[in-house]
Each structure stands twice: as structure tokens, then as C-alpha cells.
Amino acid sequence: MQPGNPDEQLDGYTERMNKKSDCEEAIRSLCHEWARLHGIPSRPDFQPSFSQFTSWLQERGYGHYLRFRSVAGSEYDAEMWFDQEFGQTWRN
To answer: Residue 39: what are its φ and ψ, rounded to 5°?
Structure first.
């Protein structure tokens, strides 16, 4: 792999890194799909679990949306989007 190459070697095959903006759009949408499927209330006093959400993403084949370039780190950005969608930014 060459420095600056947007491809990463994962599990014996090359996978293209996703565009951050595409991942943001998908993650924000999937937050609401996950909440509906799991009966997560949309109340400000309810604190949904980001780790449960990411596990669900992996199980459903959406884990690739957590792989993108980010200065702060892709998981950090994804958790911020998750918290924003559920009105939980005060936790950060």
C-alpha cells in the first residue's frame, strides 16, 4: 500500500475508503432506521447506545460506513453525528 492511497487492505482484499460526506448522510439516516427497528424513543432524556448502533451496523453489512478519512477519527465523527441525530450532543 502506498502513502496517500485511498485503498486499504482489509481481510485479504482491497477496499476503497468511503467519502466522509457519503458516510455522514448514510449514518444519519441509519440512526433513524435503527431507532425505529429497536423501538428507541426520540426523547431528549433517553440516551441511546452508540456501541449498540455500531454493532447493528456491522451485523447488517453497513460497517463500511464507519471507514472514512477523518482528522478526529471516523468513529469520533460517527458518534457525533449519532449524538446530533438523537439530541445528545451535551454528552460530548
So the answer is: 65, 35
Looking up cell 427497528, which residue turns up?
37
pTM over 0.90: no
CA proximity to 91, closest of 47, 33, 32, 58: 47
Amino acid identity of 68? F
- Alpha helical stretches, state H, 1-92: 20-38, 50-59, 74-85
In sequence order, which residues have a C-beta less than 8 Å from that of residue 61 and are 6 or more positions away? none
Mapping DSSP to helix (H, G, I), strand (E, B) and coil, where does residue 21 land? helix
**Which amino acid, one-letter code, is at 73?**
G
- pLDDT tens profile 4-25: 444 444 444 445 678 999 999 9
